[in-house]
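Sanity check

After download, print the first record. It should look like this:
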Amino acid sequence: MKDEIDSLLEQALSPMELPEQELNNQILRKIKERQDMKQEQMCYKRKIPAAVLVAACMIILCSSTVLAVYKYLSPAEVVTEINDNALQKAFLSEDAILVNETQESGGYKVTLMGSVAGKNISDFLLKTGSGEVHEDRIYTIITIERADGTPMPDTNSDEYGEVCFFASHYIGGLNPSLHNMMSMNGSYTEFVNNGVQYRVLDMDNIEMFADRGIYVGVNSGSFYDMGAYIYDEGTGEMHRNESYVGVNALFHLPVDKSKADPQAAATYLKDFEESMNEPDEPIAHTDLDSQVEKFMEMLTPENLDEYAEPIEETRQVCTIDENGKPHYSYKLENSAGDGVALTDLSGIQPGSKVIDGWNYSDDGLEGLEINVLIVNEDGTITFVLYQPRKDQLVPLTN
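Expected structure tokens:
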């Protein structure tokens, strides 16, 4: 009897009708250029509303009355929470696609709630540094929650952001590593309500590709993870990698194929390719750049521990993707990373350290983080960040 009631409760509380590395580097360079131009209007960002409301309802089962919190917001309620009145009207219109499909992986449940697309259907349209407005957009709402029912951390808690997710639309027949929201003027808005994380995705309207098929994917980490999905270049189809350790939800977005516009799609892809092939803007070389370069020039795997020290909280055994590439992910107070090893580790002796790249901030050596890979005796790969030792944080001389 209890199982039957639990099943009825679950049904009653579910929203029904309401509800390769160089390529990656190229994408990231283009994103950084756009972010620098837009400053606060970044190409890929999160906005957090000041307050979140709680919706509740009552349900009656048999002869007894049961009070329960209505766990999920409807799509229209979600965009109301972020104060987007225009988008609320769009999600209440006949053009909205309501899906409400849930998939579970990596200890999380991901739900594709719905989507809507069109011109000027949001109060918050993305602008370029030159003032150009991106009018034609697609907006999709997803939820992420823990499978065991433990609430997701609130956006103002210390735990928020410790576990990252990358969500994006994808297009059938186009390489998802290249064509995703990070390279197609994407952004997202996120908040947590009643233990459920809501995310509103938006990017260039891709309904013109409806005849190819449109996907919505959510994977662990801060970037698209090639190991999470299997992309068939022959058929153009995407599938979940069933052996992937982590979240890798993948949905088909049922966009009406009559919205396809092959001519517009061809024009969009031509413009996209031209923008990706534009030469990088020259970067001014500063004294801080020279300081870091001098430090890295004298650094070798053999003297690494003499001049730098590991950040132990980043130490981890890498996961290996289907191409044999080690992946890593970390989050620190002032930085985070999610990537794949750049160095070919074949032939490297066990126990050896490999300097696999570095990054730094305006703080120069103080903000320098060095990616280090360690080949273990058992064949696994350990990743750990190193930073300069305190006694090295002095200006370097010629």
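If your output differs, re-run the checksum step. Summary of this record's structure: Residues 21-38 form the longest helix (18 residues).
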